[in-house]
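We modelled each protein-ligand pair independently. The example shown here corresponds to the S-adenosylmethionine entry; the chain sequence is given first, followed by the ligand as SMILES.
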Amino acid sequence: MELSNFKSFLGQPIYEDKNALIYQGDSLELMNYIPEESLPLTITSPPYNIGKEYEFILELDDYIKWIAKWVNQVYCCTLPNGSFWLNLGYLSIPRKAKAIPIPYLIWDKVPFYLIQEIVWNYSAGVAGKLFFSPRNEKFLWYVKDSKSYIFNLDDIRDPNVKYPNQKKNGKLKCNVKGKNPTDVWQIPKVTSGKNRSSKERTTHPAQFPVQLISRIILASSHINDIVFDPFLGSGTTAEAAIKNGRKVIGFEINENYVNISVQRIKNIHFDENKKIKQGNLFDIITDNT
Ligand SMILES: C[S@@+](CC[C@H](N)C(=O)[O-])C[C@H]1O[C@@H](n2cnc3c(N)ncnc32)[C@H](O)[C@@H]1O
């Protein structure tokens, strides 16, 4: 389905252009209007129920039920060969666990088929004295059909091969396009703070790096596909989708975060226009020489 067709189901977005439809609202409400089997790829990171500025803490059972509810909605909207990438962190359970991986709590609540758990490893984070300093989060890669799904390995190969010229029986041992990036991804976090703030940093407290989401988009979708994020936050999924030639539908409940996303999308178009103008200027100069 074309991006603009979604408007006839979802209504008028708060922001739209040829690549993006952004809606402000509760995604569990909005998802009711997305047609069944219409989306190839969903990537998202919901609230972890740990008291961040954008969440109200729920009882654990209610939180799990809430996740199960919207994950089932995502399942209904996903195309038969589509994928769902779910990022989840840790939460504490009094007298049980200081930090239990949320995927342990939902393993039987998700109707998708789980292909793999990806570990996102980074170097920045809190320091531990009575435990190991936490330096990872997980992505669960789900598909609807275990026998038919998109995986563009060549588009995400890691070019940093240790022995690129190694041969076996006269043939190069390594793929010239690079190696499989494995299930542990070392990608720097978006950091804040004086002297160490990442360039892409916004004021959202849980912003993903574009590099991380780009890898998922390249692996699990085709050019012009629509990428959906029901908990858009600062709009990282939108930025990564558009920069990689995809389109995006995003839902976000908080007005400030919606504004951040919209600004990030506009910045991409501004940079593209600037490049085109500079290109034209260069053409004129070369024409005259
Ligand atoms: C973990 S953050 C997402 C961060 C995002 N991945 C990024 O890179 O900026 C979760 C987001 O979900 C939003 N949110 C929470 N409940 C929501 C709901 N019911 N519907 C839509 N958005 C919601 C929060 O406001 C928050 O921005």
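The chain has a mean pLDDT of 93.
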